[in-house]
Automatic annotation (TrEMBL):
Residues covered by the Transposase IS116/IS110/IS902 C-terminal domain: 211-289
Pfam families, per the entry: DEDD_Tnp_IS110, Transposase_20
Gene Ontology MF annotations: DNA binding; transposase activity
InterPro entries (alphabetical): Transp_IS110-like_N, Transpos_IS110, Transposase_20
Organism per entry: Paraburkholderia xenovorans (strain LB400)
Domain Transposase IS110-like N-terminal: 6-146
Example GO BP: DNA transposition
Protein's UniProt name: Transposase
Length: 341
């Protein structure tokens, strides 16, 4: 017997449910408070529960799986296509139910708490990097108002800041000089926080066999390795390396009509952060590629550099999937050369 499909629109305090009983065709729309949600499903037979992949959905998915249910998390933009009429909680729950029944809507992997913890470290680090860049630009802009222009890059700024502040000390009010020193010190503090997070990620890489395996791939550093393993979840959820690369948005988007298909730029679907790491890693590989007979160098002779970089990132993504899905170790000479018999 097929499990009953239940569409759930989750929120902070109120959860909207929608399901149809297959035997009788009865339609149910029910609203539950947060404290009633797990209790409701604890008393039900096994269900297929569809939810949008949004804030808190991973937590509820894990809890529902512990109760013996099957959970299908779906991207919000795929669910949006099933919303008809006015948007409200009831309409959203019905759209989620319809999307969960549709075979063409791909599910988002349900992550473990450990995997989510690693991704949380990546998000905190990414936020600190944004803060550092904003802080640095603000400090440069303020000093530029007084004729002090420094060289490009953080190293040039660190070398110039002591002399800049000493020159301005006699011209500007003391309260501003003290504030500028505090802003500069804040950059140093952010650097220390980022370094501490990176050290924790390196520790997790050393303790995780999957991370150590894919870290051997050229172009995959500790950031890409930890983010890829944590984001992918179960690698066997993808049927092939091409499907994993498509999930990351590293394949061409298509526009077709009347039997004619035109390939566009990369689709940019999926996790933007992980895709960015892949492309930066591929760019590093291209920068150090010296073998004139290699695939990348040969491709550079007939295609633009950025196209080759994305193709290399696609190849890295496929390699990551192959190693994790088949439990293999990286070998630069794979496949082995054929020997004459």
């Amino acid at each position: 017997m097929e499990p009953t499909v239940v569409g759930v629109d989750i929120a902070k305090r109120v959860f909207q449910l929608h399901w149809i009983v297959s035997d009788t065709g009865a339609v149910f729309d029910r609203q539950l408070r947060r404290s009633q949600f797990l209790e409701h499903f604890a008393n039900r037979e096994r269900c297929l529960i569809g939810m949008e992949a949004c804030g808190g959905s991973q937590h509820w998915a894990r809890r529902l799986i512990e109760l013996g249910h099957e959970v299908k998390l779906m991207p919000g933009k795929h669910v949006k296509a099933f919303v008809t009429g006015n948007k409200n909680d009831v309409a959203d729950a019905r759209a989620i139910w319809a999307a969960a029944n549709h075979p063409g809507v791909r599910a988002v992997p349900v992550k473990t708490e450990a995997q989510q913890a690693v991704l949380a470290l990546h998000r905190i680090r990414q936020q600190l990097v944004i803060f550092r860049r904003s802080q640095s630009n603000c400090l440069r802009g303020l000093l530029g108002e007084y004729g002090e222009v420094m060289g490009v890059g953080r190293a040039a700024m660190n070398r110039a800041m002591p002399d800049v502040l000493s020159r301005l000390d006699s011209r500007l009010p003391r309260v501003l000089i003290d504030s500028l020193r505090e802003q500069w010190q804040r950059l140093v503090d952010i650097d220390k926080q980022i370094a501490a997070i990176e050290q924790r990620l390196r520790t997790w890489l050393r303790e995780n066999p999957a991370c150590r395996t894919i870290a051997e791939i050229p172009g995959v550093g500790f950031l890409t390795a930890t983010a890829a393993v944590a984001s992918m979840g179960d690698p066997k959820a993808f049927r092939s390396g091409r499907e994993f690369a498509a999930w990351l948005g590293l394949v061409p988007a298509q526009f077709g009509t009347g039997g004619k298909v035109r390939l566009l730029g990369i689709s940019k679907r999926g996790d933007r952060y992980l895709r960015t790491l892949m492309i930066h890693g591929a760019r590093s590989v291209m920068k150090h590629a010296k073998d004139p007979g290699s695939w990348a160098v040969q491709l550079c002779m007939r295609r633009p550099l950025n196209v080759v970089v994305v193709a290399m990132a696609n190849k890295i993504a496929r390699t990551i999937w192959a190693l994790l899905a088949h439990g293999r170790s990286y070998s630069a000479s794979y496949p082995p050369p054929l020997t004459a018999t």
